[in-house]
Write a structure and sequence with these properties.
The structure is a homodimer of 476-residue chains.
Chain A lengths: L15 H11 L3 E2 L8 E2 L1 H20 L3 E2 L5 E3 H4 L3 H7 L4 E6 L2 E9 L4 H11 L8 E10 L13 E11 L2 H21 L6 E4 L11 E8 L5 E11 L1 H6 L2 E3 L5 E3 L1 E8 L1 H10 L16 E5 L7 H12 L5 E3 L6 H11 L3 E5 L1 H5 L2 E6 L5 E5 L3 H26 L1 E3 L3 H10 L3 E6 L3 H11 L2 E6 L18 E6 L3
Parallel strand pairs in A: 3-7, 15-16, 15-17, 20-21
Antiparallel strand pairs in A: 1-2, 4-6, 5-6, 7-8, 8-14, 9-10, 9-22, 10-11, 11-14, 12-13, 17-18, 18-19, 21-23, 22-23
């Protein structure tokens, strides 16, 4: 890279965790307040979330999802109705004990997730098969009292969407569970340029109260995994706990079958750790709040700022464009574009204007192109598409070259110590063995992928007959 | 109206409050859970909020507003930093006292509004004049521990946007305060078809901690006023309390000047009470989630549903359209369109298809038109515009014919008892007099309108020299 950085970012190789923090701070994504464990999403960070939200919401609605909004507080009695669920969440919720000047008769927790509220609502709202299916989603924030926090990855409050559906049959619920997992996977690949592995969580790793949890797992640049979205099939467990019933066409009372599925601001952490480098953030064009930054060169010369503004107006028809007309030096502006991950930079100066051309720089490769102003719109459209596609391919190549196969325990331990990435290995299906693997290596089962392979007949750890091929990895 | 109602709605004349509740329930806008004082926004209600949010957000961004997200919890010490502000809000907040399994060292309140958090954030984020202005907004929910609640109008949790800005000068802050009030007023008129009176709140009615509060006041169908949006100028009061300072161009340390402004889901209550009638909701086209409902007639006859679907596909290019292909009777479907306030209904049956035509019914007037299918798109576009405009004019005529002038105390009392609406009257400017008027008549000062008139030289109540013309009214 020819361009200098504005301020030193710790090198990824040297200290990945510090690199991550540096990027978050220097790309101006988050800020601090006096509320411990909570973060501020600053304009540059929130604008990425707005683009995620808009494009994900469109995909939801195309499958028939309707948005709703439920209360942020859950009475203790409601949280306790489903046994596994309360065990999973009670230790990490925040409790409201006083409202106004009075102590509450029943304390309320700030929602860590809203299964119990949706069940309570569905119990009142569903009576007949005509009321089904309910395919509802809400965009909101949730609170979980985490001990250690990191911007986007783990925070006491985070933004997310949570879909909650109710269906007449088991089959329909399972179909919706997988449908939404596929929406998530496709969204990650097409919009975030992040390839994912789709699969099912083991019993140990599934959601509190679910019959089955499905996940998409992405690989970060440092070889650690990040769970990027989950979709749960609840069967009729919640329905039985909350009495959510409907009368079917034969006038029999039946329990509904439910699902839930969620993605969070954690995705912004994934974007940073999959695409970023030592110069800062790299945003896929589809989630870049600014896709093209126009930097005027010798901007005090007559006609330069006017021309930059003219290009901005024209490019605005096809992309999200800004002009940096501040009094900083061009080199400083270039470095800021790098840091903030803007996909394309357009440089325009007096000599360019004379020649009816400009310089276009791809942020992902550093490539510089001289482009005729007459062809600029077409070229920008083309480049944004190419960058989006290339970023996915680069991430896929990284993921594939960091996915290993272990058929023996020694091999497994060697890989986990020396080659950060996914490990595909056979597993006996026992939770105890899964726990041993985690205790010895720090690697957890990421998922039992839909695309199963037979690597050997025996469990990589205990040697008993193998039941499933599993993706293992250390994870965020 | 020719169409019958699905279920009886209490007549407005008979009991306006019950009419309101009936419409909210029967148009399926909100639902109940077991969380007392909180409501569920169901799909039909939330979709209106989404349209409000989208169109308001566009207007914000056109003035340079950037969206952010700040924590939902505020440490007690932070809330207490500005004296007037804490006095205003402390009695009505919810307190979190436990996080996870531990009691918190400092209790946290669920945000009732976020001035204190923004100040704390700005104190850390602003150092130089180059960092100004900050023109930030957030979309979120807030909690206020209300004793009596009504859907949309008063609820323990509601959705809103809160803008918080910081400026170098007093003038710039005042300019932004008025600019946002104008954005609100224009939005209400152009999008919600609700005319408003713009003005300043009195000392007694201004926001806790503000130097000046500006408001837009709308008149409901029953003659009561609804405060529909407020914009506050804080001067440098919060900045001094929180130490929000910047160094100016001459390297002197200065306090910033701040504003805040908000609109809430209360606007949905305003839409109901301004436009609704005894048949249910009436939605202005610009906030109608479904603008056109196509009702197939004799839908089992060959080709009817296909034609309805063909019209839907075509109209989708210019409007939000649905087909009601359920097995309910056409009469039932018509009534549902009424109840839910859908602006246009299109009826298409076998005979219409033969004649290459359909029936288009305006919900606001009940007018039925026979329209050639070749001209349907143009006609629908035109009608949606006409309805939007006519609804504003109807609401304006109602507001104007229910705005009275009182120049004596007897006249004031007579109007307040017998003619529900706004009362314009002169006022001495004394809080004591304002309190007397409220105690005796239940009418509060709505605002000191920007468009002042001189109705007489003396206060309508006490007879002392008049300082301002005020809009009075009973209010929600």
């Amino acid at each position: 890279m020819a361009d200098k950085k504005v301020e030193a970012i710790t090198s990824m190789e040297e200290d990945f965790a510090q690199w991550y923090t540096d990027v978050v701070v220097k790309a101006d994504l988050t800020g601090y307040t006096s509320v411990k464990g909570f973060m501020v999403l600053k304009p540059a960070g929130y604008a990425i979330w707005e683009l995620i939200q808009k494009q994900l919401d469109e995909r939801f609605k195309a499958t028939g999802v309707e948005n709703v909004y439920l209360p942020m507080l859950i009475p203790e009695g409601l949280l306790q109705k489903e046994k596994d669920h309360v065990e999973g969440f009670a230790p990490e919720v925040a409790w409201v004990t006083h409202g106004g000047l009075n102590e509450l008769q029943e304390k309320l927790c700030v929602r860590p997730t809203s299964e119990t509220l949706f069940c309570d609502f569905y119990q009142k709202d569903i009576t007949s098969y005509r009321d089904l299916p309910k395919v509802y989603n809400q965009w909101c924030s949730v609170v979980r009292w985490e001990k250690e926090t990191r911007p986007f990855l783990r925070s006491r409050e985070f933004l997310w969407q949570e879909g909650h559906t109710a269906h007449a049959t088991e089959e329909e619920a399972q179909e919706r569970t997988i449908q939404m997992l596929n929406v998530y996977a496709d969204f990650c690949e097409q919009i975030l340029a992040i390839p994912v592995v789709k699969g099912q969580k083991t019993e140990k790793e599934k959601f509190a109260g679910a019959v089955a949890t499905y996940t998409i797992e992405a690989l970060m640049h440092d070889g650690k995994a990040l769970q990027s979205g989950t979709s749960h099939n609840f069967g009729d467990g919640f329905a039985r706990a909350f009495g959510v019933q409907y009368t079917d066409k034969e006038n029999h009372l039946q329990y509904v079958h439910q699902t839930s599925w969620g993605m969070t601001t954690r995705l912004i952490g994934a974007i940073i750790m999959v695409h970023g480098d030592d110069n800062g953030l790299k945003l896929p064009p589809k989630v870049a709040p600014t896709q093209v930054m126009i930097v005027p060169i010798q901007q005090k010369k007559e006609g330069v700022l006017e021309k930059a503004e003219e290009l901005r107006a024209k490019l605005s028809e096809i992309a999200r464009v800004k002009v940096d007309a501040t009094d900083k030096s061009p080199g400083f502006k270039f470095a800021e574009c790098e840091m903030r991950g803007i996909p394309l930079r357009v440089e325009i100066g007096p000599r360019d204007i004379e020649n009816n051309q400009c310089i276009v720089v791809r942020h992902d490769t550093g490539e510089k192109l001289t482009v005729s102003l007459d062809e600029l719109s077409d070229k920008v459209t083309e480049l944004l598409e190419v960058i989006q596609k290339d970023m996915l391919e680069t991430a896929r190549a990284h993921r594939d070259s960091h996915t290993y196969t272990a058929t023996s325990w020694d091999e497994f331990k060697d890989i986990i110590e020396n080659k950060p990435g996914f490990i595909k290995a056979m597993w006996c299906g026992e939770t105890e063995c899964e726990e041993n693997i985690k205790a010895e290596t720090g690697a957890s089962t990421r998922c039992m992928p839909f695309e199963q392979e037979t690597l050997s007949d025996v469990c990589v750890c205990c040697g008993k007959p193998a039941k499933k091929m599993v993706y293992f990895g250390r994870a965020y």
